[in-house]
Amino acid sequence: MIVHGQTIEKHAFEAATGWVIKPEGACKAETCIPLPFATDTEDLPAVALANAMNLPLVEEPRMDVLAIGPDSLGGRAVSSAKAPDLCLPDLDGTLHRLSDFLGQKIIVYAWAPY
Amino acid sequence: MWRALRDEVHHLGVELITVGLDSLGSSGCRAAIEAAAPTHPALIDTHHDVARLFGVVNIPQSIWIDEQGMIIRGVTSAPPPPVSDAGAPAGPPPDLPARMMDIMGEAAHIESDPATYHAALKNWITHGADSPYALSASEVINRSGPQSTERALGHAHFELACEAVVQDQKAIAVEHFQAAHRLVPDSWTYRRQAWSLETVAAAGPFERFWQGPHPDHPEQWPYEGDWLSDIRAEGPANYYQPWED
Question: Among partner residues A60, A66, A83, which is closest to B172 by beta-carbon distance?
């Protein structure tokens, strides 16, 4: 995920990665990774978070932006069959979440104009 | 074509969500979406979130998700629905540059199997969890593509490259696209996205499909591969992963 500045909003991190920040650390399914900083705030230190979770981090100081990559636990592109809650805009900028469509069968179809 | 399929099965409790992968965002996707006049959500994925979240590496690819939000068939090549009477195939327009003719020649050898894919899709729509094409959770995970620390780092570089495009920082974008291509070498979308931004005016309406060196300035091409070289190296028959029962 893209981070502007040095801190990351907790709920944005959770939504983008599927990890949940709990008092005991960052948790996904059976795994919890302890975090060496207070987690009861809305903003978390991005670099310290990525380092503690061993997530790939690419800093781009020319844009004051950094990117945190996905975890590679399990060695597969998909680590859980529970679909992540993809959240993207349409042409009008209206955000749609995959979870808005639960209760139906969903076909996600990826295409590109090139 | 996908809209017609969606409208045919929507009353059965099926929704189609299209995701346009383009770091140019809505300006890149708008023409195609408006031409399709979708009745379903047509979303725009500026940073290719579906690559990191689901493992999309080429287009068109689909993911099937059940009513409870469980993936029952992960990333799969998704050819357009078969057409019973396609009529005479449209030939290439006249006066096409030689490179575009070569690209269309290679593309003609790309293999896909729309009949098998769409028969399986209809079977799942009808039978749900009882369909033989609805996979178990462990099978969904096992069949998903590889992940590694190197690939994860490549995904971060790619996302940063897209952000650089959004911020109109072309040179920075190229650096991170190059890193992503090296670290996630099997992703056609990561390559095609980068190549599509090196437009060549001589290609006219096909400028985003040129995907290779400028004929007059080949030394300025910033990437190791290009569409024509890579498809010839890898073989057009290997461009799409075949359907797997």
Answer: A60
Q: How many domains does chain A have?
A: 1
Distance from CA of B82 to the nearest CA of A (A): 16
Residue of A1, A13, A57, A58 to mutate, interface with B, max B Cβ within 10 Å: A58
Give the pLDDT confidence of A43-78 residue by residue, as tens digits: 999 999 999 999 999 999 999 999 999 999 889 999
In a domain, A75, yes or no: no
For B2-95+113-143, CATH number out of 3.30.200, 2.60.40, 3.40.30, 1.10.3210 equals: 3.40.30
Could you tell me the pTM of the whole model?
Answer: 0.95
3-class secondary structure, B237: helix
Does ipTM surpass 0.90 in this model?
A: yes
Domain edges within chain B: 2-95+113-143, 149-236
Q: What is the pLDDT of residue B184?
A: 98
